Amino acid sequence: MLSSANKGALGAAFMLCTVSFAAHAAWEPSRTVEIIVPAGPGGGADQMARTLQGIVSKHGLMKQSMVVINKAGGAGGEGFLDVKSSSGNPHKLVITLSNLFTTPLATGIPFSYKDITPVAMMALDEFILWVNADKPYKTAKEYVDAAKAANGSFKMGGTGSKQEDQIITVALEKQTGAKFTYIPYKGGGEVAVQLVGSHVDSTVNNPIEAVAQWRAGKLRPLACSTTRSSTITTRSPAISRGTAFRPANRRASMSSI
Description:
Layout: H1 3-23, E1 33-37, H2 44-58, E2 66-70, H3 77-84, E3 92-96, H4 99-107, E4 118-126, E5 128-132, H5 140-150, E6 154-159, H6 164-176, E7 180-185, H7 188-196, E8 202-203, H8 207-215, E9 219-224, H9 237-240, E10 243-244, E11 250-256
Parallel strand pairs: 1-2, 1-3, 6-7, 6-8, 9-10
Antiparallel strand pairs: 3-11, 4-11, 5-9
């Protein structure tokens, strides 16, 4: 899937961090470092944080421990407010996604992206339209036609309310004329599980959030949220034949303090 691209982005960002630490060798963590994830377990941001945690631990990059803490309440607002209240604390980081911008707009919480300091861009993941592999839809057109015929009864699962998954769902409705019932969950991992269990009819999870279920033959990708056809072909013929659909929305993971 996008693992090689993600590893490249992660490697570049990680290198920036090590260069930064080298340039400021006089400072090093004096206690446990917390990585706050403003989303549930299993999603892209959560996996990014745990990958970082594993790299730091494996290579002994600092003497202190690093822990990952999920705070998904209030569409991630719980996590953002926690980090805001820790202003000036270099032992607390946050892996952000698009809800860095959408959550304050949707909920009115007293938080702004200006309240934190960006450190590095970690990855950009395109969204994939997924369906259960047991369903008859082999193309995006077949799926859209079925959704139109269902007249609003098709359930689209996604991470959070009024975040990028729901925004893409609304955009898909406007583009195709189909109607969906949007079902919010706390994270991409939970979303993938719900689709495998046929509790929802489709999702727009990132590749990394559903890759395990796809490799197990449980899910089928139909389209990418990009302005061009996917060039991913390795072990992914279904995606390479998928239809591109707009908007070219991506979930961005960025480490910030």
